[in-house]
Amino acid sequence: MVQLKNMLPEGVETLYGDEYAFKDEILNNVKNTFRSYGYRQILTPTFEYFDMYKEMFGGINFRQMLKFISPQGDVMVLRPDATIPVARMAAKNIRDKDEYLKFFYTAPIFRQLETQKGDEREFLQAGVEYFANPNPECDAEIIAIGIKTLIDNGIEDFRIDLGQVSYLGSLLEEVESDQHVRKQIIQLIESKNQGDLKSYLEQRPMEIQYKELILNVVTMYGKPQEVLPLAQKCAINEGMIKAIENCEEVVRILEDYGYKDYIIFDLGFTNPLNYYTGIIFKGYADNFGKAILQGGRYDQLTMNFGTYKPACGFGININYLVEIVSMIKTKDRVTCYTDYLILYEKSTRKQALTDAEKLRKQGYIVETNELTDINKQTLLAKQRNIHEIFVVDKNGCNGIEVIRNGVTNDIKEILNRG
């Protein structure tokens, strides 16, 4: 016989009542924040053609995708990225090419990651995407929503690391003509290995001042007022200058939101998802080592689907958010409960079920069951966090208080009968 007791795949989770209720409350908080800025919820497919990711976009490691073969013989993947299918939707479902679109989603993301490092193969992600607005106001709004989402869930100690893809990109295009070499330099920058980067640059036939400039740029980290003036001085072409001007304007707008103090600039920050074209950012909560949210500007992505719609967006890992909030709100965890348990005899079942429905219509959570052993049922009610039990017998409705927690109305009065 197959032993099923441990047959749970690595990198996935199962949630019970209270745990799920806690996660669901946080997810609802996130969705309400997104809606408050005018974003409308959408849904994209759970699985896609592998070729859509393989041939058009890159950036996502193909070995990280969870693949399967369809009955028709096509190679399919479970959704490894949410932004790409949302961009397709924006490109294909429009009435006017200049129409701006504000979307938000909640969706499971699937990736074949290294579970021994605590990574998840399936995690819940929520995100916002703003299309057809190429201006810094759009970038700042997206970042502001990310900040507000963390604040609305009780997280106070966090930072947003901002980078600019076109600043580093413009520098590398100026000093290195070989695209393969530029890609290798970016990979070394992503790994944050200064020693390997320095050794690699020393082997290149590149002018010494450019090597020093690259090493300088990747160490530019700190508050906007410290980093941006230095980055402006290091700019050697128009692309770099425009990138810093964009950063400065985004910071000015975030200051008007009241969020400037959360911002840290990291001009050596890159992103392996190579569809980003401008501002990129990651959010980190104190005492939590992984990025809880990340995103940026991607102006060319919809071109793969035949329409130009510049865009900016971010995704937030709800699993990480739940983990962080649970550490902060250990005393305020959501717990499942039932207001009333109505027990009945066979002869009073119809009346009990009618009473239960009346209570539900008034917003109460009500369970019903046949009366058997009242002592055992009282014990089970405590385990299930049922506040009060009522027995419907031939004499009417008799109450047994189990847990008094805000349920103070007399049930006879609620039901308007004696």
Would you write up a description of this structure?
By secondary structure, the protein is an alpha+beta fold. The protein folds into 2 domains: 17-328, Bira Bifunctional Protein, Domain 2 (BirA Bifunctional Protein, domain 2, 2-Layer Sandwich); 338-415, Rossmann fold. Helix content is 40%, strand content 22%. It has 14 helices and 16 strands. The strands form 3 sheets. Strands 1-5-6-12-11-10-7-9-8 form a 9-stranded mixed sheet, sandwiched between helices. A 4-stranded mixed sheet has the order 14-13-15-16, with helices on both faces. A hairpin with a 2-residue loop joins strand 15 and strand 16. Helix 1 (17-36) packs across helix 11 (318-328). The chain starts with 16 loop residues before the first helix and ends with a helix. The model is unreliable at 403-408 (pLDDT under 50).
User: What is the distance, rounded to the nearest whole angstrom, between the alpha carbons of the first and last residues?
Assistant: 58 Å
CATH class assignment of the largest domain: Alpha Beta
Can you list the strand order of the major beta sheet?
Answer: 1-5-6-12-11-10-7-9-8
Low-confidence stretches: 403-408
Sheet having the most strands: 9 strands, mixed
Whole-number radius of gyration? Answer: 28 Å
Number of domains: 2
By CATH, the topology of the largest domain is: BirA Bifunctional Protein, domain 2
- Give the name of the CATH architecture of the largest domain: 2-Layer Sandwich
Strand content: 15-25%
SS-based class: alpha+beta
- Which shape, going by the Cα principal axes? elongated
What sequence of helices (H) and strands (E) makes up the elements? HEEHEEHEEHEHHHHEHHEEEEHEHEHEEH
Relevant CATH superfamily of the largest domain: Bira Bifunctional Protein, Domain 2
- Give the fraction of residues assigned to helices: 25-40%
- How many DSSP helices? 14
